[in-house]
Amino acid sequence: MMFSAQGSSRSHCSLLAVLCGGEVSDTKRKQPVSDDKPRYPFPVLASSGRLEVQLLNNPSIDEFRRVLESSGPNIVYLQGEQNADIEEIGSLVWGDVDLSTPEALCGLFGSTLPTTVYLEVPNGDKLAEVLHSKGVPYVIYWKNKFSRYEACHFRQALLSVIQSSCSHTWDAFQLAHASFRLYCVRNNNCVSSDSQKQSIRPEPCLLGYPPKIDISRPEVDMQEEESSPENLAAVKIYDDDVTMRFLVCGSPCVLDAFLLRSLEDGLNALLSIEIRGSKLHNRASAPPPPLQAGTFSRGVVTMRCEFSTCSSTHMSLLVSGSAQTCFNDQLLENHIKNELIEKDQLVRAQSSSEESKLPPSEPRRSASIACGASVFEVSVKVPTWASQVLRQLAPDVSYRSLVMLGIASIQGLSVASFEKDDAERFLFFCKNPGKDPSLASSLISRTPSWLVPPPPSRKRSEPCKDTKPLNCPVMEGVNGIPRPKASVAPMRPIPHTHRHKMLPFSGFYETERYDGDQGKVNLPVVPVKQPAPVTHRKALSSSYQAQQIISLNPLPLKKHGCGRAPIQVCAEEEFLRDVMQFLILRGHTRLVPQGGLPEFPDAILNAKRLDLFNLYREVVSRGGFHVGNGINWKGQVFSKMRNHTLTNRMTGVGNTLKRHYETYLLEYELAHDDVDGECCLLCHSSAAGDWVNCGVCGEWAHFGCDRRQGLGAFKDYAKTDGLEYVCPHCSISNFKKKPKPMNGY
Predict the structure, then answer these.
(1) 58 burial type by CB count under 10 A (0-12 exposed, 13-18 middle, 19+ buried)
(2) Rg of the chain over all Cα atoms, to the nearest angstrom
(3) What pLDDT, on a 0 to 100 scale, did the predictor assign at position 470?
(4) β-pairing, 51-57 with 93-94?
């Protein structure tokens, strides 16, 4: 359950805060400044961002029930009693009514139940169990007794997360709990009263179940998935880890395991919030990662997916999975969310000993970072997509979740929402580094690596000390003073290594051909002893690059069964209507405009509406999309479309047509039998490659299979005004039919 109104389209979260109305409340308390203890600025509980706050001070039970029924808040916050002389939070008392018993508290709520109830009272485990059994999904409560400083820090962290983004109760609590451990528990000096100086420390707890992402498949594909169990595997995400450097507000300290673990949990919760509320905006076919294309099984495709998170940041992911998953937007989105959130550990903080052998350093203070407060450096390893999200969140002045973890800078980029009061609240819990001898002995006043200015670009070279002097004649210097001849060893040029171009591994699954009569595998013959001509090497290079594309034609996609006429005799209106129905059936409603058929497709090319009908007919008549560059998209396809003009000067129209075909027609092609089943007339296989069409007989062939010399490169045939390919059979036939010259002419 997200922190938003259930069954409503509004994006705000409502909070009903009920204060006990004691002598002092946090919103009105002003702590005197003293030399012994720093000032703690208590925040004001008010509406901010997407959080709408409604306050009730010492209400009656009837008044509380009336407001609860009328407003229907998402969160109900019940604050315990406070006293000026006691720093501990007391029990729940409204006037003369004691609500600290489970029966009295349970009687406050009727049929209208909030999503979350936050009990800011000591020893609230039994009260939380009663509310949870009554039907409240999530109850936040405290174990043992706690001070108002601890309560204020945790509450401020929790509400800051809610006001920043549309978050789930579980994730918001995990981030606030990590902030509580990072400052209150780790420093262990937040307890002010003597009664709390005990072995059992206070701790906020959550009663509820973690949310799950629905990755069940649509009912229309259940029968097909049961017959194809190899397609049920979840998606795989290809992403590398990068190291990011954070500056965290606080006194410089030793990076112990407890500090790093708290920061890791907080960042994991922050990223889970962003992913759980993310939305898939675009997907497109992409080549597989290098060195992994050969490991893909049949029917696996790769997609480049563009996401926007709940805080409007953008990220890009390369994923692979079955056709049923990757061609269903909602299913693909849920699988990616589940894969990212359910990962054991997205963020891994590095201790100073793990990162470098050098001791920790104290960074320089800056007014733009944590408002000039003291900070310390932490190195964290995160996925690349996470680094993209964090870099975009730092400049957002309304995003407060990073601040609640004390993060003041990310890779030199300051967090814009960090305020002076935040720094004072964090430093209130920190120990004085001057009173900690272990801390003073472990720190060295060393400037961080990214603040050190780069060395000069030109240095005066020093003579090589290890070089022995050569026995060479002495040369005369200035004014007759002899000087030895310069050593030859330091003057030798540095040899340059030849870097070979690394090509992705494509495996043998596309080049192998099975001979059913012989019962053996025929491998392609590659000349080894004699070097191939230049033109032939270019053809082989083009063929190799074409083999990297995994064929999409044999994907086991369920047929549409629409009963449409064959594409050769089908009318354009019937075709477009069938495409619209297919896209809606597959869940691609974003591609179908609200105006229906007159506005479909919602794509413009060369100042005209995209001609999907002729685009589809020309592509399927030439072997389908899996042929790749064997189709001259600009010369053969675009010239047959209504978008083409004689004065056309568009550039890159071939790639534009491919993108439109992938968006609207690729999945439609796989679900219909409109593609002419062609195979190479030389190798007799239908594997993906550098397809070319013979201009005489109309047959298809792999350009790399044609070993004739003088053909040129594949790009000479694939471009708009390219050469016309003639297969070997037609070339021999034309040569035999050519009339012999008479009379020498």
Answers:
(1) middle
(2) 35
(3) 42
(4) unpaired
Tokens for 709? Answer: 């010399």
How far is it, in rounded angstroms, from Cα 265 to Cα 253?
Answer: 19
Question: Measuring CA to CA, how many Å separate 5 from each of 107, 260, 276?
Answer: 24, 35, 17
Paired strand residues for 94: 97
Whether pLDDT at 211 is above 60: yes
Written in H, E and C, the secondary structure of 517-534 is CCCEEECCCCCCCCCCCH
- Residue 31 sits at the vertex; the CA angle it makes with 416 and 122, to the nearest 5 degrees, is 90
- Which strands, in side-by-side order, build the sheet including 236-238? 236-238, 314-322, 300-308, 279-285
Report the amino acid identity of residue 656.
Answer: T
Angle at 453 between CA 371 and CA 376, to 5 degrees: 35
Task: State residue 601 phi and psi, 5-degree precision.
Answer: -85, 160
Beta-carbon contacts of 189 under 8 Å, excluding residues fewer than 6 positions away, are 429, 431
* 300 phi, psi to nearest 5 deg: -95, 130
N-term to C-term CA, the chain = 90
Pick from 391, 405, 421: nearest CA to 158: 405
Q: What are phi and psi of 494, to 5 degrees?
A: -75, 125
Per-residue pLDDT of 666-686, as tens digits, reads: 989 888 888 876 678 787 676
Q: How many CA atoms lie within 13 A of 195 on its CB side?
A: 8
Instruction: Enter the tokens of residue 689.
Output: 């490659």
In DSSP notation, 551-578 reads: P-TT--PPP----PPPTTT--HHHHHHH
Determine if the pTM surpasses 0.85. Answer: no
The CA distance from 659 to 284, in Å, is 8
Query: What rounded mean pLDDT belongs to the chain?
Result: 75
**Residue 453 reports pLDDT greater than 90:** no
Q: Which residues have CB under 8 Å from 594's CB, separation 6+?
A: none
Do 93 and 81 contact (CB within 8 A), yes or no? yes
What share of the chain in percent tops pLDDT 90?
29
Strand partners, 377: 247
Cα–Cα distance measured from residue 234 to residue 332, given in angstroms and rounded to the nearest whole number: 9
Cα 136 to Cα 108: distance, rounded to the nearest angstrom: 13
Q: Give 232-247 pLDDT, tens digit per residue.
A: 457 889 888 999 999 9
Residue 665 forms beta bridges with which residues? Answer: none
DSSP E strands in 551-697: the ranges are 604-605, 608-609, 691-693
Q: Please provide residue 516's backbone torsions phi and psi, each rounded to the nearest 5 degrees.
A: -70, -35
Identify the band that residue 159 occupies on the pLDDT scale cut at 50, 70 and 90.
very high
Pairing between β-strand 348-350 and β-strand 375-383 as defined by DSSP bridges: antiparallel
- The pLDDT of residue 454 is above 60: no
Look at residues 571, 251, 309, 653 and name the one whose alpha carbon lies nearest to residue 433: 251
Does residue 90 register a pLDDT over 90? no
Per residue in 302-324, pLDDT (tens digit) is 889 999 999 989 999 999 988 88
pLDDT digits (tens, 9 = 90+) for 600-640: 998 888 888 999 999 999 888 877 887 766 677 887 888 88
pLDDT classification of 293: cutoffs 50, 70, 90: low
